[in-house]
Amino acid sequence: MIKAVIFDLDNTLLDFMNMKSMAVEAAVHGMIEAGLQMDREIACKKIFSIYESKGWEYQEVFDDFIQAELDKLDYKLPSKIDNIPPLIRGEDDRYGIPVTPPYELQDD
């Protein structure tokens, strides 16, 4: 029998903004490691400015950021394919499972 239901409607039980900040920082770190040429703090500020203008629940913030910074949105892997482990690249079947990536690898 349910005796109580608790809702966190005003960010009091769960620190939503801290979690969002950590997620943005992790995403920016990943983008920089994948080749984004931008200062981490500047990238985070630009992403948060998108949130501020379009709403904190806006689901396409990273798409908008990448489109604005690179003038294109490309879902393909970065050209640094050698930094991706062999299993993910589809070149390692040591576990007996054929690994076929869901993307095409292109030579630069």
How many separate structural domains? 2
- Taking pLDDT < 50 over at least 5 consecutive residues as the criterion, the unreliable ranges are 95-99
Mean pLDDT: 76
Number of helices: 4
Helix content: 40-55%
- What class, by secondary structure content? mainly alpha
Binned strand content: under 5%
Could you state the oligomeric state of the chains shown? single chain
DSSP E strands, number? 0
- CA radius of gyration: 19 Å
- Major sheet: size, sense and barrel closure? none
- Shape assignment: elongated
- End-to-end separation: 61 Å
Could you state the order of secondary-structure elements as H and E? HHHH
Descriptive report:
The protein folds into 2 domains: 16-74; 76-108, no CATH class. The protein is elongated, with a radius of gyration of 19 Å. Helix content is 44%, strand content 0%. It has 108 residues and is mainly alpha-helical. Residues 95-99 have low confidence and may be disordered.
